[in-house]
Write a structure and sequence with these properties.
binds magnesium ion, five-stranded mixed beta sheet, Nucleotidyltransferase, domain 5, binds adenosine monophosphate, 2 domains
């Protein structure tokens, strides 16, 4: 199927966000609508996320089309997130995309979510070849383009940074999402309490830090010798210093001249400051993806779908299966040299 109309509907459905974006093949964005599942307690339970997306996908698509001032018949390409993510949740996006593609008789294309975070950053920040620090609720990755792929230079060996912050915040009695609340609390302190700092080469581990921070708020000393702001400050200082160290090492190794910070945790001003500092030291340009596009969204999926579609055309429906564990470095990126 060839796409006659140059408008793409992008569907994000890897985890908490059911996102829909409408944009054209030049990268002009007409709408971005997200419906985000927020757990009342605990983490993301795949069955509950799936139910949320099933209940909300139709209205989200409708709102995205209406904000874009267009009808479903104006859409010429469907892109959806096919990897990585929660299997049950990925399936929702895949089924909707397959259905729309067949009913509308328009091409379909599956997109790797992590690559989409980089591509939307390149588009929105007008940046060519960045080293990317992607920090979110599900991922912590330092990546750069080399040998036809987005190679992973560093990544977490256990918890993602956002998951660690949210889990600690939950233990401290703060509502989800915890990251922004920790940031606010941390601004009130400069009393550093020792926490495990674990960097292995360019990889990171946050589980020891999480356990130690939890112990601090369970300790008898808590509320006497230090308070929650002090722990929040110490958690941030430690994990952001770890992220900064591996980003700097990857920057020195790859000799890239641009650094892109993206994912939901990119909103954190302290992290931005620390990464900006090493960029200055290495004479690299520093960009933070505009926050609207830094978190999960359908526009990034649509844009990456367009990039691949222009090179390879659409996929056969039978090839549009989900790949919950696919890594970004397994995928060739034909639209870059
Ligand atoms: P994403 O998975 O990309 O949608 O990002 C969601 C994650 O970003 C959650 O773990 C949030 O706690 C985290 N987050 C959002 N804002 C901030 C902030 N200002 N500081 C730290 N983490 C944040
Ligand atoms: Mg993400």
């Amino acid at each position: 199927m060839e796409s006659k109309k140059k408008i793409c509907l992008g569907i994000e459905s890897t985890a908490h966000t059911f996102g829909v974006g409408v944009l054209d093949f030049e990268g002009n964005v007409y709408s971005l609508v997200n419906d985000i599942y927020t757990p009342k307690e605990g983490g993301l339970h795949p069955v509950l996320v799936k139910e949320h997306h099933l209940n909300n996908f139709m209205i989200t698509i409708k709102n995205a089309l209406s904000n874009a001032n267009c009808s479903i018949k104006d859409i010429g390409l469907i892109a959806f997130s096919d990897s990585p993510g929660l299997g049950q949740v990925l399936k929702i996006g895949a089924i909707i995309a397959r259905m729309l593609s067949q009913i509308l008789k328009i091409p379909i294309i599956g997109v790797n979510h992590c690559i989409a975070h980089i591509e939307i950053g390149r588009l929105m920040c007008n940046i060519e070849d960045p080293l990317t620090l992607y920090v979110s609720g599900g991922n912590t990755i330092v990546s750069a383009f080399e040998s036809a792929r987005y190679q992973i230079f560093g990544e977490t060996l256990d918890l993602s940074i956002g998951n660690m912050l949210d889990s600690f915040a939950r233990d401290a009695g703060l509502a989800h999402p915890g990251g922004p609340k920790i940031e606010k609390l941390a601004q009130k302190s400069n009393n550093y309490l020792e926490l495990p700092y674990v960097v292995k080469g360019m990889d990171l581990s946050f589980s020891g830090l999480y356990t130690a921070a939890k112990r601090l708020i369970e300790s008898e000393q808590y509320g006497k010798n230090y308070n929650l702001s002090d722990v929040a400050y110490s958690v941030q200082e430690t994990c952001f210093a770890m992220l900064t160290e591996v980003t700097e090492r990857a920057l020195a190794h790859t000799e890239k001249k641009e650094v892109l910070l993206t994912g939901g945790v990119a909103a954190n001003k302290k992290l931005q400051k620390m990464i900006e500092y090493i960029c200055k030291e290495h004479n690299a340009r520093f960009e933070v993806v505009p926050l609207k596009y830094a978190g999960d969204n359908g526009v990034m999926i649509g844009w990456t779908g367009i990039l691949r579609y222009k090179m390879e055309g659409g996929q056969e429906i039978s090839d549009t299966f989900i790949k919950p564990k696919e890594r970004m470095d397994q995928i060739t990126v034909p639209w870059r040299d």
